[in-house]
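Lab notebook, bench 4. We co-purified these components, and the gel suggests they stay together. Before we commit to crystallization screens, I want a quick structural picture of the whole thing.
Request: model the full complex, all chains together.
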Amino acid sequence: MAQTQTRQMPPPRGNFRGIPKQKVKKGTVKRLLREIMRGNILRLAVVVVCIIITAGSSVSASLFLKPLINDYILPLVKEHTGNFQPLFGALCMMAGIYLAGVIAVYIQNRVMAVVAQGVLKKIRNDMFSHMQTLPVRYFDTHTHGDIMSHYTNDADTLRQMISQTVPQTISSFVTVVSVFVSMVATSWHLTVFVMLFIAFMFFVTGKVAGQSGKYFVKQQRALGDVNGYIEEMMNGQKVVKVFCHEPQVKEAFDKKNDELYENAMQANRFANNLGPINNNLGHLQYVLCAILGGLLASRGIGGLNLGAVAAFLQLSRSFVMPINQFSQQLNAVVMALAGAERIFDLMDEQPETDDGYVTLVNAEKKDGVLKEADHHTGMWAWKHPHETGDVTYTELKGEVRMFDVDFAYNPEKTVLHNITLYAEPGQKVAFVGATGAGKTTITNLINRFYDIADGKIRYDGININKIKKNDLRRSLGIVLQDVNLFTGTVKENIRYGNLDATDEQIIDAAKKANAHGFISRLPDGYDTVLTGNGANLSQGQRQLISIARAAVADPPVMILDEATSSIDTRTEALVQRGMDALMHGRTVFVIAHRLSTVQNSDVIMVLDHGSIIERGTHDQLIAQDGTYAKLYQGAFELE
Amino acid sequence: MIKRLSLCIREYKLASILTPLFVSLEVVMEVLIPYYMGKLLDLGVTVGDMNYILKTGGLLVVFCVLSLTFGVLSGKNAAKASAGFARNLRHDMFHNVQSFSFSNIDRFSVSSLVTRLTTDVTNLQNAYQMIIRIAVRSPMMLIFSLVMAFRVNHKLSLIFLCVLPLLAAGLAYIVTHAHPIFERVFKTYDVLNRVVSENLHGIRVVKAFVREDHEREKFNTVSETIYHDFVSAEKLLALNAPLMQFSSYATMLLLSWFGAHLIVESGNVPEAGMTTGSLVSLITYSMQILMTLMMLSMIFVMLTMSKASAQRIYEVLKEDSDLHNPDSPVFEVRDGSVEFDHVSFSYAGDKDKLCLKDATFRIESGQTVGILGATGAGKSTLVQLIARLYDATEGTVKVGGVNVKRYDLDTLRNEVAMVLQKNVLFSGTIKENLRWGNENATDEELEEACRLAQADEFIRAFPDGYDTYIEQGGTNVSGGQKQRLCIARSLLKKPKILVLDDSTSAVDTKTDALIRRAFKQYIPETTIIIIAQRVSSVEHADVILVLEDGRVDAIGNHETLLATSEIYREVYESQTKGGGK
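Here is the predicted assembly.
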């Protein structure tokens, strides 16, 4: 799963990649600017100064042509003095200005690199850090692909915008303004003409961009369709083979692929036209300007001389170019802002609320009194500070009681009704029931992945809302049906349960989980690197590792949610023996659809549609001859 | 690699050739335009010859129209060529993947195949368009501009020859030094994405173990590495613009200085040589020439970035299926008997890591066979050899008395129906899914198969019955329902051998028993091979194979195995202990 996302190459600039004309919230620009500014004020000031110098030197480069020809070269031609001294002086002065520009642009780029990357790093880290505080509900209600794209696509467009578009826009702006002033100074008649022409240019560009955008939307849709099909077929590739269905699949794919081709072609065609159209309109503008300028100069209107027309022509080019660039980048800006907005949305998500103040501490008994200890004692206590300033300690026993608990993931559909249960310390409590009966939900509530709607849950007599979430979770070991391993060695994966565990403790935990045997047979034993969620292991082996991971945490209370569903019953019996030894005297919650897994539990709760319909030991339930008995005899379906 | 990839151009060859052609013509126009602009300035504006201005202006307008036409044509062809190239890449890859054997599929993870077919293709598409457009345009521009510059004034153009190599060397230095850093950055990006992705998938684990800080640390370390590498790469690239500007400013100053001398010499008379107009043209050319170099260096950076994508696509394209149809295949499977003769198998082809060791046994046609064993004992491996999803590393597997390697693959797989452990339903109606087994099945046949698989009842309970739409991945049916649909789908093939690889694990024991009874009753001549965790699923089988660590540990029926096989007894007891049966 780890490779679902790949690197995102920076797309060619000015290329339309997304859907144009997205609405961007008002505050986004402000907030983004604030993010960029924070801690960078000085650097940005330097950048702005540098940009002004750079733009100034490039404007004076185009302005220089007029005096060069009119004031230096033409007099030289006319007067035949052969005195190149003034020209040399002027060139030297220009060289100075240019040099300043060159140095400024270098400083600007270097500083901007630090600013852009710094801002991105901060945004990235803030985003990830904030994401860690979000409730499980957030992850359950957003697809992983969407969240991932904040780190890839959105961050990437942002990177481009900050490091390229922002400085370019500032520099374009400076250039446009100063060139405009010079143009007006040279000839306002021609300036009016240029402005009219540019309006025309915008009109044409807008038309073409609109066409292109229309097809880009279509292309995006077709791309989504093709990608979806690819994903589905790659996932079912083995099924396709087993049914010899390759020809049909190929045919269906080709159809979708052709449609994508058609739309991609059209979209790119219009996008490709933008460049030539803008370029040539620029040329046309130049020619028309020359004709008009020539006319004006020959009639002597507006005090134009030929040198001025030549200079104006040069100016008009420097005027049109940044405007062109900017209009082509507008789309990139809009896309980046949309990306920024999505990133900010993530950062604005409400974190998990935690008003708990009861904490979990190591404890020891001295003279029959519970005392806080500064080392691992194998005994834990809840440290309960009171308003009066007193601190009391309650021994962690693992007693969990629920009173009339109701819960719903969304308001329309209640998942749990009136759940009342007592799990005495050291008991093994099992939940059985069909998919959707609410088994996993109960455990989600105990470790507060979700908060109950109504009722009360008490842990060792303390309302769990009063316990600090992190401490509550630390006291609960959990093994889930869907095993998630991280890229790293087997050892590192097991150590995830207890970062301070020694190698001996890890091996010991693996032995208890009955995982030691197969781990030793792996190419590098405990140092074998697992990738892609342990893709090289079988589902059962991964479950064994995740059990070892929970075992090394040595928690007072353990939740096993279908933890052994992919392990054969014989191995499961061995694992259970190990777990029973580990969990002796501690509370264990077991969820399983395989009844052999739960048979030896102290209490078995049968859940149906969110309610507990039967409870008792295996023998009691069989004697009751109710749902459980039917389940056991195989007359009922469990999923 | 390039050779194989270029095979995907095919019918877009014409567009791929026309594009650079039109680009070249466009470039010619774009080079001619400043030339005539200079003339316009010299012979028209400077002299005030309105007639000449209009004439040359008209010519220039024609050039603009031509240039625009060529530009649009090249753009159109480029779009066609690159989109078509991408289409063919996707087509070839997808078709090649369809020819993959199971072991080929195992080599590529699903997610990596998806990336290769999507993101990587898009990357290459962009790169290809860049090659046929801009990568042609820039050198052309360079050459034409140089030629024109020399035509305007060859003495002054020598300045270009001095500045160009310096600039080129500088750009080359920057690009070659920045490139390795960028490669590293992108690798680190992969790590970053992986950390995020694993965090997302394992968020419950992270929270349950209260490892948020640990994860933050992990992420920040990677993030920091990216920051440092990126900054150092961009600091190098920061040299690009100043270098570029320095060259162009230097050229301008040199042109102005020497140009002024020449103009004075000629007296600004076109016939005598250098004029102010030519100077303006030369300066325009100098900009164009230097810009092209800049573009070239950028293209180089971008192309090297897409190299990785090209490599990944190439890996899929060159992957040959390692299972082939025999030369003169057998098109008929005589009966449903299966025979293993000293069969060993290893996924890696490595004889030290055998998943199945020296398996020898015989199954008669029409028998029901159970296979039992621990996780990783080799059960799935064994049955996959029957349908030749993999080739045995050693020994022979026979179906209907014939070595499976001699059969036509489709024939064999249609007669040996596999219900896979990790099974998949596709988006579409239930009917459409079932027809995977037999496209021409009538509605009656579909219902018949579903009745056998005990699926008919629940399908009818759906509001849309057999037309109920199954979501991608079959998320809107329960695990047990999915399994029964998969069984029905396989039954429609009317196979001689039906293999159920742990296919009823989510089905309750009663329904499980009903399915088996239905098989016995309605398709008694079909060989049924059942892999199961539950003893109850296999205890009534004619033969039960007990696998342990890749070896066939025991063969026999329930009673004999209870008496002889310790493993079987243990499994049996683990499932019935404390039971009231």
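The CA atoms of residues 411 and 596 of chain A lie 36 Å apart. Worth comparing against the SEC data before the next meeting. Confidence is low (pLDDT under 50) at residues 1-22 of chain A.
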